[in-house]
């Protein structure tokens, strides 16, 4: 096993840190004092969708939670703790749920819904995690869609479903019920891997809630 990829990252980090200090000498000193991002990004773990890179953001601009297929399960303490901390402690004003084209998690769920998976009865952490998305796929009419059309339809439906879940969560319902709380909006975005561009699919706020 080669350790070259690891050393490459360490070398790149050193070069980046030196470059930042050269351009903005006090950047890291200021960064160490705290964070005040306005955006919580809930996205996919896919390596092709790095939120800071595709939005040209800097450290401290975006609070982040990522997982396979950009899920927000209402029983997931990891996602709920991130959302709670982001809204109630960090003070974010926008929660953005981001899906992307050619999502491997969505592809797997399409296959599972068809019953094509090698052994669909096997329960693994991944199949359990994706079970709600597989159920969502089964609820969609994809019969007239090509493979690419079906995948895009699933990805978009998944984004909207997760936005709806976020809007039902305690941190958001509490914030929206409190007239004195900071205004929080929830957005559903789609990132196109082939074009490098983001498109908004859905928007929710205290006035346009479910």
**H and E order:** HHEHEHEHHHHEE
Low-confidence stretches: none
Backbone shape: globular
Overall pLDDT level: 94
Cα end-to-end separation: 51 Å
From the alpha carbons, calculate the radius of gyration and give it in angstroms: 19 Å
Largest sheet: 5 strands, mixed
Percent helix, as a range, is: 40-55%
Strand content: 15-25%
Class per helix and strand makeup: alpha/beta
Secondary structure: number of strands: 5
Strand order of the largest sheet: 2-1-3-4-5
Question: Any overview of this molecule?
Answer:
The protein has 210 residues and is an alpha/beta fold. It has eight helices and five strands. It is 47% helix and 17% strand. Helix 3 (51-54) links the parallel strand 1 (39-44) and strand 2. Helix 4 (77-90) runs parallel beside helix 8 (170-177) and helix 5 (104-114) crosses helix 6 (125-139). The protein is globular. It starts with a helix and ends in a 6-residue tail after the last strand.
Topology diagram in text:
Elements: H1 4-23, H2 27-31, E1 39-44, H3 51-54, E2 62-67, H4 77-90, E3 94-100, H5 104-114, H6 125-139, H7 147-168, H8 170-177, E4 185-192, E5 197-204
Parallel strand pairs: 1-2, 1-3, 3-4
Antiparallel strand pairs: 4-5
